[in-house]
Design goal:
single chain, 52% helix
Length: 132
């Protein structure tokens, strides 16, 4: 890798990185670890993690929810806020996919053009550039 690349992490990739989960693919792990890459984390991922933790689906994420900003800083990840452009694009996306978090990340890809680090096939179905 010769130049700086921007990458947007899907929520599962973010969690698997922070929890050192073996489900994170070797190419995804290498791309995140590459110091010349800028790693972006959508505000939608914070929302998704907090929501799933509250619902009891992510009990292992208690510390992450409580100290999310610290985790971002320690990993040198960059927060990607949700803009009006992102929200309009997410709301206008075609198709039956109903997951609001995925729809936001897909929209953010189309606005920023950042490849998304994800194993979720729905992203490719929308024509998103994926790293996995």
């Amino acid at each position: 890798m010769g130049s700086m690349n921007d990458l947007l992490l899907d929520t599962h990739a973010l969690l698997w990185w922070w929890l050192d989960d073996e489900q994170l693919s070797a190419p995804a792990r290498a791309a995140i670890a590459e110091p010349r890459n800028r790693i972006w984390v959508s505000a939608a991922s914070g929302w998704e993690i907090a929501t799933k933790h509250r619902l009891g689906k992510l009990p292992e994420a208690a510390d992450i929810v409580e100290h999310f900003s610290h985790y971002l800083r320690r990993a040198r990840f960059i927060e990607l806020p949700i803009s009006i452009d992102h929200s309009l694009k997410a709301g206008a996306l075609p198709g039956p996919h109903r997951d609001p978090f995925d729809r936001m990340l897909i929209a953010q890809h189309f606005v920023t053009h950042y490849p998304v680090v994800t194993c979720d096939a729905i992203f490719r179905d929308y024509g998103v550039v994926v790293v996995w």
